[in-house]
Amino acid sequence: RARRGVEASLQQLLEEHRATIVQRWRDIVINSYPAETARFIRAEKDPFANPVGGTIVGSLDQMWDSLVAGGEPKDAITAVEDICKLRAVQEFSPSQAIAFLPFLKDALREVLEVESLEAEPLRGLLAFESRIDQLTLLAFDTYVGCRERIYKIQATEARSRSQRVLEKLNARLLGGPRKATSDVDAADDTPRPVTDGKGGDPT
Fold first, then answer.
1. Which of 33, 98, 105, 153 could form an SS bridge with 37, CB 3.0 to 4.6 Å?
2. What is the pLDDT of residues 108-117, one digit of tens each?
3. Percent of the chain that is helix, strand, coil (3-state, to 5)
């Protein structure tokens, strides 16, 4: 159980309960996935066979260490980006995608039994949660950036597919891969009468 009393600083509590807090945080994040996916993430320990699970474990550890060290939100940007890239391609709404950081608050309050904390560690916890909020804002910006890149890739692929379809259609209709680039080009395909080179009919 968490130590009680004014003499027990939040830093001591966080160090003492690091493993339990981080494990509980991981569990909450993994449980945000569909049940079958969550079972696989939890059961498969090989990071090569389970890259999602490996990314979750490594990134949450890095974020935790950065937060406890009191660093700036940007210090954890690599770990935040790794999680956001995963969740940007999965079936999450924006609020669900970045919920992995508010989930840390849930883990903290559960493990530290926040209702029983004395005033000093409680004040420290509120300040710690403020850093989590700052990191959450950064995660939202990062997630939006990931989604924008995905949309651009999808739009480029859609245009490329459409172009290929048009080229195949032109090839079938015109007997070759020729592409009409303007009304003038299209008009050039109209058959013209044969002349004698002086503008007159050779007959």
1. 33
2. 999 999 888 8
3. 70, 0, 30
